[in-house]
Amino acid sequence: MDTFTNSGLPWDDYGALRDENLGAYVPDDETLRAVAFVDKGGTSKTTSLAHMGVVADQELGLDTLLIALDGKQNDLATHFGIEGDDLDAATRWPTIAQAFAPNIDQIDERLRSEGDTDDGVLADLAVPTGEGPDLIPASEELDGVDKSLSDIDDPAERYSFLDDFLSQYVDDQYDLVLIDVPGSTSNVAANALWATKHVFTPVRPSPLDTKQAAKIRAEINEKRERHDFLSDLELTMVVLSQVSSQTKAGRYFLDQFREAFPVELSPVPVRDSQAVINAQLERETLFAHDSD
């Protein structure tokens, strides 16, 4: 992805970035990829990912696909109001679980021969969010997928299914893929880590946990050292959530995390805002809520 990272784009000037069509810098047969991963809930992980996807698609010109791998929860789908009958329709066979199937090629060929488009399996998986990005919802079948992956002894085979799926069916359709996974390092989550190599971590700072920043770095290092296939895993972005830079505590946490993550830390935290909750109640992001 050198054509993107070495493009000379004004990365430190968001206003200037909005004037660019970043999608033009992404090769047609590749995607930018990142996974939102943190080992506990309550950090605004899914909310942050949803908003990042909308910004990337609507303001930065990146055709964006969101993928949910959180099994029964499907919080990302709920965030965009895809629930009830709509979710049932979106998670009929095939589902994201088929991305981990050895016969995905045959499934794709069957759908192409039976369908009205030439998009194959991707056309049946991805649904519009109504705010720009498309979404592949999670599936309850992922629990069974995780167990079946445990029966594969070769790590290179066990953890490469999602990477192969994205490379074969997604890369030529989208510029950016953002993946939401549960906190535990399951076989499915490990597939997402391998497929993306870039980790986005939202953090809700705690005044009682003075080693919080160090733990984040240590967790990424532990995964790199423990698994050869994750040797190039990279902590790409850390975002503080439910923090205000206008408060003493907020400024303290920002200073603490800037020292620990001088490159990775997002310059602006996600504030603890009632507007975010109001938007969630309406099953939309803040961007759609503000425009209502």
Automatic annotation (TrEMBL):
<feature type="domain" description="AAA">
    <location>
        <begin position="39"/>
        <end position="225"/>
    </location>
</feature>
<protein>
    <submittedName>
        <fullName>Chromosome partitioning protein ParA</fullName>
    </submittedName>
</protein>
<dbReference type="Pfam" id="PF13614">
    <property type="entry name" value="AAA_31"/>
</dbReference>
<dbReference type="InterPro" id="IPR050678">
    <property type="entry name" value="DNA_Partitioning_ATPase"/>
</dbReference>
<dbReference type="InterPro" id="IPR027417">
    <property type="entry name" value="P-loop_NTPase"/>
</dbReference>
<dbReference type="InterPro" id="IPR025669">
    <property type="entry name" value="AAA_dom"/>
</dbReference>
